[in-house]
Design brief:
alpha/beta, 8-stranded parallel barrel, 21% strand
Amino acid sequence: MESLPGPRPFRFGLSVLPESSGAGIAEQARWAEGHGFSTLLVADHLVPELLDPFPSLAAAAAATTDLRVGTFVVNNDLRSPVLLAREAATVDLLSDGRFELGMGAGHMEREYREAGIRFDRGHGRVERLAESVQVTKTLLAGEECTFEGLHHQVRGHRVPAPCQKPRPPILIGGNGPRLLELAAREADAVGFTGFSHREGGRSVTLDDFGSDALGQQVAGVREAAGDRFPSLELNVLVQRVVLAEGREAVAAEFAKEPAWPDVEALLDSPYVLAGSPESIAEELIARRERFGISYVTVFERRGGRDLAPVVARLAGR
């Protein structure tokens, strides 16, 4: 009888707000690399406090030797897929093959309005993302792309061939069922966020913040992915990390904040890590066994650096 594959090794991503200087980004990147994080990640929003992800990631890669760099995640509607593929290929080349492309459908209507871009309902944004993924995958594989879709048309275009073969890996992240189904079919990694933004705004709904909801979403991804499911990497975007001996006390403090769930829900949530390094490590191992989650992303400014002892225990194992 053929043996089943073992669990995928853990890796950890640090999502940063890039410092507004080359030296600052270099320090963030070197810290992440020196403490065992696999990937330095930058989001993509049209806000003055956030630098553009692609030059930021190129600077991070230049300051390190092994650290991977990635978008987490690109707002698909801000760029044509041709431009996106060209930027991704460029960073992959400049980083000697250490780039990962995270893609998402976008959600903040204010950004669209300020940039003069039409903001559609979620279905339309996911539909455009699906077309962009097809174009981007073809171009990043070093192939000539001709594509006729409802939203995008490309005629005989190529971009610089990236280092990684067959192409840089693609993560698709979000929470809606259509987006997760797309990720299951097309991505190399699926990112679960546990929350959805209320249409067009910053406020969120946390209906999917618990373990049972994640289990249902993973089951849906498994069904949509079919035979390719074993090759998928599964990721969670953790919203808060707190090292403390008493998880219940930490959850009680979180529960006082507006829009957060109650204590019981927070203790059950895969998107909050609270406790001692030992207990958090045990929790992550249990979640990998239950859900297959092996890639964990944390925010630098929400306690991410505090996870270093856990990363030291688990990364690569």
